[in-house]
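**Folding the chain**
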Amino acid sequence: MRVSRWIIGGIVALAILGVIATFVFGGAGWITAPFRGAAEERENTVGSGAFRQSTYQEFFDLCEAAQNAEGSIQALKEERGPASDARKTQIDQSVTALKATRIESINDYNSKAVQEHRAPFRDRDLPYRLDADADKTTCAITE
């Protein structure tokens, strides 16, 4: 009985000495380095003024790209009426390409709007999501 108590006591004492040695010789810093590094990297990236400004502007640019494509599509549709058959074919191809570009911009906007590190920098007047099925994209929410 006494021997088993001494053995258990010795194991506990070694464990305590091991923990103390880890902290004394910097082992705790080594063990937590991956966690601290990830947190520091996130703070440097998300907290930097350049990142905040570029992310803020990026949402406006993506929404504006969708609106620009819509404007070009509308202008081409107006031109299509009196155009020749060859020009109508060109217009139809251009409209198809612009629709694809618009959808790509909207999908890009929506995917970035839900990213945790970007979402806080989306302007409060911009919508949370853009609707690719809508005929017209509204970038600024007015109350």
Notes: The longest helix spans residues 49-80. The chain has a mean pLDDT of 81. Helices lie at 2-24, 27-47, 49-80, 85-113.
